[in-house]
Structure formats: structure tokens, C-alpha cells
Design goal:
30% of the residues are buried. A nine-stranded mixed sheet has the order 16-15-17-18-23-22-21-19-20, with helices on one face. A five-stranded mixed sheet has the order 4-3-2-5-6. A five-stranded mixed sheet has the order 8-14-13-10-11, with no helix packed on it. The protein is α/β, with parallel strands linked by helices. The protein is built from 14 helices and 33 strands. The two termini are 41 Å apart. The protein is extended and about 125 Å long. The protein has five domains: 88 residues, no CATH class; 154 residues, 3-Layer(aba) Sandwich (Rossmann fold), CATH 3.40.50.410; 101 residues, Immunoglobulin-like (Sandwich), CATH 2.60.40.10; 202 residues, Rossmann fold (3-Layer(aba) Sandwich); 94 residues, Sandwich (Immunoglobulin-like).
Length: 675
């Protein structure tokens, strides 16, 4: 409490005493017990009111010792138990967390990680993925401005996420405790399989296998690919101490329509400790139809090649780039992409009025907008001779089909003549345009559907820069290519809109995320946010059925089916209000990525420790680790001064007290006839 506050309180006592004495004793010249009691009540009332006005604050200083956090991370994935290291892991964890000297010096905080990262002191080693990078990243966000050591108990074998060498940062030391048998065993492994999801009937599709060998002597192995009881391919592979990786490419026939399951295997006469990683299943969907797309342009432009590469990233698509007079028959194509049409396209537009092929019209600086206004009536253009750069604005309410924002607001602008664009009839706008920071409210990418015929409009050239920018941002063209594929999928479908649209994969790897998404549209083909969607999933072998509700997420509904065992499943997705139904199936492949390793990754964990100026340890070196942590002078407790300011009295109770005083004074005066 400050000196000023104390002086004010003393002054309040003087004022309250003076006023009460003057009113009930000096003024009435009577020192009866009643007057003395009334003077006392008035003194308390005035003094309480003055305290209420002053509101004195008491400041209290306390000191707290803050210990340095010690993050104790335990790998809770199934690879720990597969390597028979769960007991050593628990023992190492308890030896550190229960050490009295460690607890005296550090604030020990335990975490478990597999595919997720969470505080935990109990570990079951049942995680289906290992993401050490996520654990390091989440740990940095918890201790943003604190210097702390990390003890990482793991085998170092990561199955998902980025490289964990760069996830913990360089400022804080990481001490890995490497669990697992470091004895090198002979091991053959299919490290990776590359295969397209789709193949075409009567064609051959490639399979690329990356094979790995751990051992010191020369070895010959057989690499085979089979389907059921049929052997489709067999190759003899040679390994040595100096040649431990081999890449094998085979061509397999696609002679059956539908989802085909294959098995790739590698084997030798030598005995292996782990044969689980010798086999991998993969699935290919064989289709007998290909979507043919014609890109028609009278000019050369980088956009043409960009569209071709993006579209053909889906092997179901085939793109041909043509000039307007080179198309012999429109019936050869499922979609027409008309790039910057001019009067040279007149005969093509006339022919398409009969063929009714869905079109994707792209405009730019070479477009004849007068001609384009004559050939279609979905959009009206009033353009000038000047050029303008248009940025994209994503419309989150777009519901013609399901798509995501790939970061359109950060993509380079498209160029188009300056002018106005008017919308006629029902047009769904996915992207609107803006000039610098000013919204034009004009469409940049729009879609229409009229009497079963669909059209798309992209108002600007230089989308090749979009594809390049998404690769810079994501180290992959995938997001942009999927976005373009969604457009082509919309245009290649000639049937009318369905009320219930469901998206799912035909196969999933066991342990990976199994997600099914759906959209439900009302009679006006508007996304229905009040739909009630449920799904019944039935195991084809056991006939066991599980029911789930789909949860709404932005402009679609989704359900996560993680936890299902490997096998074939049929499912029925139903909208309860209207009883609309969608039925299909999927397959969960028996593949456990956590069982692909026979040894811990000693080299990687040692590199992580060295990178953070720390040291890696083994379970039999825990005492040395504890000694190192205790002797490290970087980690000292901090004395923290905590200042607590509290009011001398509670204001509400003081008001109640004043009210009681005034009421008592009034009743006493009334009773004694002093009113």
C-alpha cells in the first residue's frame, strides 16, 4: 500500500469522526447512549463511503522458483514393440522420470508420440505411424521462448512427416536414447513401389520397385509379382556388400476390368529375421475408357503445354492440341478447351451446336470478345483495348463440385483486356477477380449448366504461372493438377447433377487415414447444410456392420473410418431426410509400415544429437545421460517475482455493509423519535 493511500485513509478517519461527532454530539449537546451509538453508525458509514471512493490496493510480492523444463518424449508407435524394445523403453523412461536429482533440477514433462503428439505417462506402443518431425515441431510451439533439453526415446524410424533433423531447431539440445537391437541382420526389403492407380484395358502398365539389402556377403534373390495364384513376373536380382539397392521395372498386362490386387515379393534361400517387409500389395483399377480432350488454339502460348501436363497427370485423360481447322470429328472428343477463340473458331462453334460437347473457354489478350458474345450467352463482355492484371478471390460457398482453396489469393495475376463482364442466367463462380486491392465483383473462373450441357469460363491467360507457383509453394504440381482435373471431371460428365455426391478411394493402406466425403444438394442444386448423412460399413468376410454419422466441414460432409481391419468392405451412405442412397465398396490392404524395420536408425539419431550439440545414448547408458544433464550449467532454476495486487475490501460487500449501516441508523432514529 502506498504512502498516499495511507494518508488518504487517515484523512478519511478524521473526516468521518469529525462529521459524526458534529452531527450527533456537538450539535445536540447530548452524550446519551443512543446518540453515541448513532454517531458510531454514522462514523462507520462515512468512513466506508470514503474507503469505497479511495479503493485502496494491497500489493504483495512473492517469489517462486521456476525450474527448467525437461521434455521427455517417448516413441509410442508399434515399431517399438515389433523390435522387442517396449520393456527397455519403459525402463529408460522410468529411470529418468523417477530420478530424484533430475526432478529437483528440472520440471519433467512427459509426452508420447506416434502419428499424434500428446502429454502422457502411460504408453501402449500401438501407434500405426511414427512422426518424429511433428513431435519436434509441436514441442517448439509449447516452449517458444524457453531454453530446455529434450530426451527422445525412440528407434528413429519415421514413417510419415518431414525430415525430423530440422524439426527440433538448433537452440535446444536433443539427447536421443536409441532403443532396438543394433546388431545387423541379413534383410531383404521392398523399400518402395511406384505404380499408377489406373491402367487401361488391353494395355500394359509399369511397376517400379526399389529393393534394398542389408548384409555383408553376396546374395541372389528373386523378385516376383503375382495376382492370386498366377505368377505374372519373376526376375533374378543380385546384391553384394557394395551394391545394396536395386531398381526393378516390370510391365504387367491389364486384361481384367475393375480393381485388381497384386502382390510384389522378394525372397532368397537365406534366412531372415524379418520377412514382413519382403512383401507389398498394390492395387490398380483397370478401366476401358479414356477421356479425350481437345485443346483448340490458333496461337502458341505456354498455357497450352501447362494445361496438357496438368490434365494428363490423370492417366484417364488424353490431350490433343489442335488448330481450329484441324478437328475432323467432334465425336472423337469428350471435352473441348477453346483457348482465346476468334473468328477462326466459327465453324467449330457451329458444329458444336449439334454435337453439344462440353466446353472450357479461356480468354486473354488475343480473344475476339465481339465474336465470343455472338457464340454464347452465359457471359457478356464489354472489353477495351487496354490490358489489366486480375488477381483471384476464392469463393468458399461454391458448390457445383467439391474443391479446395489451393492458395489462389497468393497466385500471380492473370492478364485479360480491361472491361466489364456481365452474368446471364445461372452461373456458379468459383473465382472472382480483383485489380490490386479492389474487388471487381466480376467472375474469373465460372461454370454453367443448361439443359444437360456444361461450360466453364476462365477469363485470363498465363495460368502456366499458377502451376509453377503451386510447385514452388508445395514442392509438387499435385494441388494444381488436381484442381484442373476437377474442372475436367465436371465437364466430362454429361449426366445431370446428382443430389448425393460421394468421394472415396477404392483402396487404402492399413493404418493410413480412411476418409469418405459427401455433398448433398437440395432440389435447387444448392448445398444442403441441414442434411443428415449416415454410413453403414460392412466387412465382406465377417458381415459385421458399423454405423457412423458424417460431420459437416465447410461445404461438404465427411467421416473418418480409422480403426477398421484389413479386408474388403461394402458401404451404404444414406441421407435420412430424403432417403437418398449411395452404395459402393473399398479395400483396406494388409500393410503395416511400422513393421518394415529390423534395426533402429542409429546414424540419423546420432546426426540429430550432433546437430544440436548433444549426444546420443543407448539404454545401458542412462546414468551417463543423467550425469550430463545434472552437470550442465546451462539449465539453472530461475527465481521469479510475482506481484499480486488485491483490493483492501470487496466492493460489493462494502456496499452491502453501508446499506446495513444506513438502515440500522434509520431504524434507531425512528424508534427513538429522532426523525
Amino acid at each position: 500500500m502506498t504512502t498516499t493511500t495511507l494518508l488518504l485513509l487517515l484523512l478519511s478517519l478524521l473526516i468521518a469522526g469529525s462529521l459524526s461527532y458534529f452531527q450527533y454530539i456537538f450539535k445536540v449537546k447530548n452524550e446519551s447512549k443512543v446518540n453515541l451509538f448513532l454517531a458510531f453508525l454514522r462514523f462507520l458509514t462515512i468512513f466506508s463511503i470514503l474507503i469505497l471512493l479511495i479503493n485502496p490496493i494491497i500489493t504483495k510480492n512473492t517469489f517462486e522458483i521456476v525450474k527448467t523444463p525437461l521434455a521427455l518424449l517417448v516413441d509410442n508407435s508399434s515399431s517399438i514393440s515389433f523390435l522387442n524394445s517396449n520393456e527397455k523403453t519403459i525402463e529408460a523412461y522410468k529411470q529418468i522420470s523417477a530420478n530424484k536429482e533430475i526432478k529437483d533440477k528440472f520440471e519433467v514433462q512427459s509426452y508420447g508420440f506416434s502419428d499424434e503428439f500428446e502429454p502422457s505417462e502411460l504408453f501402449d506402443f500401438e501407434g500405426t505411424q511414427t512422426n518424429i518431425a511433428k513431435a519436434g515441431k509441436d514441442l517448439k510451439s509449447i516452449y517458444k521462448y524457453t531454453l530446455y533439453p529434450t530426451v527422445l526415446i525412440t528407434d528413429g524410424n519415421q514413417t510419415s512427416g518431414n525430415d525430423y533433423l530440422y524439426s527440433f531447431g538448433d537452440a535446444n539440445k536433443v539427447y536421443p536414447i536409441i532403443v532396438g537391437d543394433t546388431t545387423r541382420f541379413l534383410d531383404l526389403k521392398i523399400n518402395q513401389l511406384n505404380v499408377n492407380k489406373y491402367a487401361f484395358l488391353k494395355n500394359k502398365f509399369p511397376v517400379e520397385a526399389f529393393l534394398q539389402y542389408s548384409g555383408s556377403k553376396d546374395l541372389t534373390a528373386d523378385f516376383t509379382v503375382s495376382q492370386g495364384n498366377s505368377l505374372l513376373s519373376k526376375q533374378r536380382i543380385s546384391f553384394s556388400a557394395n551394391s545394396k539397392t536395386v531398381t526393378v521395372k516390370v510391365l504387367l498386362p491389364a486384361d481384367k476390368i475393375g480393381t485388381q490386387i497384386y502382390k510384389a515379393s522378394i525372397s532368397s534361400v537365406e534366412k531372415e529375421k524379418n520377412t514382413y517387409n519382403n512383401t507389398k500389395n498394390f492395387v490398380v483399377e483397370v478401366i476401358d475408357q479414356k477421356t479425350n480432350i481437345a485443346i483448340v488454339s490458333s496461337i502458341n502460348h505456354p498455357d497450352l503445354g501447362s494445361f496438357k501436363r496438368a490434365i494428363e497427370s490423370n492417366v484417364q485423360r488424353k490431350v490433343t492440341i489442335l488448330k481450329p481447322n484441324e478437328i475432323k470429328s467432334l465425336q472423337d472428343y469428350n471435352v473441348l478447351i477453346l483457348y482465346q477463340p476468334t473468328t477462326e473458331f466459327k465453324s467449330l462453334f457451329e458444329s458444336n451446336k449439334i454435337a453439344r460437347i462440353n466446353t472450357f473457354i479461356i480468354t486473354g489478350n488475343s480473344t475476339d470478345f465481339t465474336f465470343l458474345n455472338q457464340q454464347q450467352n452465359n457471359l457478356s463482355f464489354k472489353m477495351s483495348a487496354g490490358k489489366e492484371d486480375y488477381l483471384a478471390v476464392f469463393n468458399g460457398q461454391f458448390n457445383a463440385f467439391s474443391t479446395e482453396n489451393i492458395g489462389f489469393e497468393n497466385l500471380p495475376p492473370l492478364q485479360n483486356p480491361y472491361g466489364t463482364v456481365s452474368v446471364n442466367g445461372s452461373v456458379s463462380v468459383l473465382l472472382s477477380s480483383k485489380i490490386r486491392n479492389i474487388d471487381t465483383n466480376f467472375p474469373l473462373l465460372a461454370f454453367t449448366e443448361n439443359q444437360g450441357r456444361r461450360s466453364a469460363y476462365l477469363l485470363g491467360e498465363n495460368t502456366w504461372k499458377w502451376r509453377l507457383q503451386t510447385h514452388v509453394a508445395n514442392q509438387s504440381f499435385e494441388k494444381y493438377d488436381i484442381f484442373i482435373d476437377k474442372i475436367i471431371q465436371f465437364l466430362s460428365t454429361t449426366a445431370g447433377k446428382k443430389s448425393l455426391v460421394v468421394e472415396h478411394e477404392r483402396f487404402y493402406n492399413f493404418g493410413a487415414g480412411i476418409e469418405i466425403s459427401a455433398q448433398y444438394f437440395n432440389k435447387n442444386y444448392e448445398f444442403d447444410e441441414k442434411a443428415r448423412l449416415t454410413i453403414a460399413v460392412t466387412n465382406s468376410t465377417t458381415k459385421e456392420t458399423k454405423n457412423y454419422d458424417l460431420l459437416k466441414s465447410s461445404n461438404y460432409y465427411k467421416v473418418n473410418l480409422d480403426g477398421l481391419k484389413a479386408g474388403a468392405y461394402n458401404f451404404t451412405l444414406r441421407e435420412l431426410n430424403t432417403n437418398n442412397v449411395y452404395s459402393s465398396n473399398f479395400e483396406i490392404l494388409d500393410f503395416d509400415i511400422e513393421k518394415q524395420f529390423v534395426n533402429p536408425d542409429v546414424e540419423k539419431l546420432t546426426q540429430l544429437a550432433a546437430q544440436t550439440n548433444a549426444k546420443a545414448y543407448f539404454p545401458n547408458q542412462i546414468d551417463a545421460l543423467i550425469k550430463s544433464l545434472l552437470e550442465n550449467e546451462e539449465y539453472k532454476a530461475i527465481q521469479k517475482n510475482i506481484v499480486v495486487k488485491t483490493p483492501l475490501v470487496d466492493l460489493i460487500w462494502l456496499l452491502v455493509f453501508i446499506s446495513i449501516l444506513l438502515a440500522t441508523e434509520w431504524f434507531v432514529r425512528k424508534y427513538n423519535g429522532l426523525l
